[in-house]
Structure formats: structure tokens, C-alpha cells
């Protein structure tokens, strides 16, 4: 009887540990954004907090990804994230941990704009 009780407690402890760790290890996704034809594709994406976005430059021209905290409608302050200049085939990734709306553009081509909405 004692060994059965001990097994039960060990089983309950294992189930509790797995249940506690499950939210922490919830799957974080990676969303891909292509930079091609002088635009970000898709231009606007919606992700969950903890997800990563990877931009890939498909253009022969160099581009970058620069988050601009000057927009009044954005939900972040003092966000200083700027990729290096990306040559064709190069990538840049960023993980978004805080919910909000994050606008970005390309410094070389300011008409290239994108938005990441983090839920």
C-alpha cells in the first residue's frame, strides 16, 4: 500500500510539473516577410507575443528594417531596432515579446512600409 501511495504521489507530481511547464514552452511561431519588388510582403502581419518575424531580402538592391517610434499610433516608446543593410538573400529576425502595433520602413526606400501587430 505504501509503495502504491508513493507511486501515486510521484505521478501527481510529474503531472503538475508538466502542467506548469506547458505554458512556458508553448510553441512560438516564426513568420516570414519577404522584401521584394521594393516592398515588404506581406505588408502587415499579426502575431502572438513571443513570436519571431524573419525578413528576407529577395531584391538585388540593399534594404533594411527600421522600427520608427515617431508614429503617434504605435504602442511602443524608445524602440531602437534597426537591421543592418541586407544584401540579396540575407535575413534579419526579431522576437516580439510585448503586445502592440509596431511600424517599420526601409531607410533607403522610405516608401517601403510595414506593420507588425502583436497580440
From TrEMBL:
<dbReference type="GO" id="GO:0005507">
    <property type="term" value="F:copper ion binding"/>
</dbReference>
<dbReference type="InterPro" id="IPR001235">
    <property type="entry name" value="Copper_blue_Plastocyanin"/>
</dbReference>
<dbReference type="InterPro" id="IPR052721">
    <property type="entry name" value="ET_Amicyanin"/>
</dbReference>
<feature type="domain" description="Blue (type 1) copper">
    <location>
        <begin position="33"/>
        <end position="119"/>
    </location>
</feature>
<protein>
    <submittedName>
        <fullName>Predicted plastocyanin-like protein</fullName>
    </submittedName>
</protein>
<keyword id="KW-0186">Copper</keyword>
<keyword id="KW-0249">Electron transport</keyword>
<dbReference type="InterPro" id="IPR000923">
    <property type="entry name" value="BlueCu_1"/>
</dbReference>
<keyword id="KW-0479">Metal-binding</keyword>
<dbReference type="GO" id="GO:0009055">
    <property type="term" value="F:electron transfer activity"/>
</dbReference>
<dbReference type="Pfam" id="PF00127">
    <property type="entry name" value="Copper-bind"/>
</dbReference>
<keyword id="KW-0813">Transport</keyword>
<dbReference type="InterPro" id="IPR008972">
    <property type="entry name" value="Cupredoxin"/>
</dbReference>
<dbReference type="InterPro" id="IPR035668">
    <property type="entry name" value="Amicyanin"/>
</dbReference>
